[in-house]
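Our collaborator T.R. sent over the components below with a one-line note: 'Predict the complex.' Nothing else. No constraints on interfaces, no templates requested, no preferences about which chain binds where. So this is a plain run: every listed entity goes in together, and whatever single assembly comes back becomes the starting point for the next discussion.
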Amino acid sequence: NAGVTQTPKFQVLKTGQSMTLQCAQDMNHEYMSWYRQDPGMGLRLIHYSVGAGITDQGEVPNGYNVSRSTTEDFPLRLLSAAPSQTSVYFCASSPDRVAKETQYFGPGTRLLVL
Amino acid sequence: DAKTTQPPSMDCAEGRAANLPCNHSTISGNEYVYWYRQIHSQGPQYIIHGLKNNETNEMASLIITEDRKSSTLILPHATLRDTAVYYCIVRVVRGRRALTFGSGTRLQVQP
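Returned assembly:
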């Protein structure tokens, strides 16, 4: 198993550009989520999904969209990038849609918005 | 979720046991203690969790006091690769909200 994979590893955007951060897992996990981590800070939840076709907002959803058409993939879309979205983005998955405390994290995508 | 308190940093000699404390004095009866770590520039990694009994797995041991107000994560033989930020998280299993990562303890394993 590759686990949780994220692409790209690094990205530089200009203000106003849009892009999609990709996340995939091959463990057949129902629960997937996106976090952002700003320098020196803990992780904050952006969006999550408890299964294909079901998504919900987390703590900091503004400026981001998600969809979950398959169990494996959970892309995060930045609609119009802003410098405040400069951060490291982590995708995570859990084998249990309810008891989601045991999560497996991807390696992260480092995003710089100029 | 109960609040946790961890020391901001600790040092440990390579090959020795690393004992990382966590205070969670407001923990309630249905809340578990979870430990994650984050090695520099990587995603967090689940380590272990427990309710009231001591737990051990291939990575670490978790000792929870009888009153459950504090716990200790033990890395029995620390290596340089264990240098990371360690997060203690207390929450209800099957809670609706996501994991909340605080500032954690930065463990530096010295050669």
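Summary for T.R.: The interface with chain A takes residues 32, 34, 41-46, 49, 87, 89, 91, 93-95, 97-104 of chain B (CB under 8 Å).
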